[in-house]
Description:
By secondary structure, the chain is mainly alpha-helical. The protein is 19% helix and 5% strand. It is built from three helices and two strands. Strands 1-2 form a two-stranded antiparallel ribbon. A hairpin with a 6-residue loop joins strand 1 and strand 2. The longest helix has 13 residues, at 45-57. The termini are far apart. Bound molecules: zinc ion. Zinc ion (ZN) binds next to strand 2 and helix 2.
Amino acid sequence: MDRFFTQTHCDRCHKSLDGGRIMSMFNTQCICMECSDKERQRPAYKKAVEADHEAIRSGNYNFSGIGEDAQDMEQEIHSRSREAINEAEFNENQGEFSGAGASGDYESSDDDADDDDDTDDTDTGGSDD
Ligand SMILES: [Zn+2]
């Protein structure tokens, strides 16, 4: 980008930069103050500035602007080099300890199944005589 300081003519109108130079808000062109004034009056200028600030805020210092061809129409600036924002979301899920339910079942129910041995007295017909 050192060309920015060495070039002598406006990238846009090719006039001399004796009156001052400035980086375009729309791209990386080095333009004269006159061109700068012109682009400031463009409705899209606000967007260009916002996009620039947004890029810097997200760590993109090489943002090249929304483009000089960004006319006054609605431009989707969000799709341009915005992938720098990677928000890692930390969801702290605290695992709950389900306490070991030591509800002692000590009741050993003694089921003495009484087998009633019914002795069948099958009297085979006593011969009565
Ligand atoms: Zn110019």
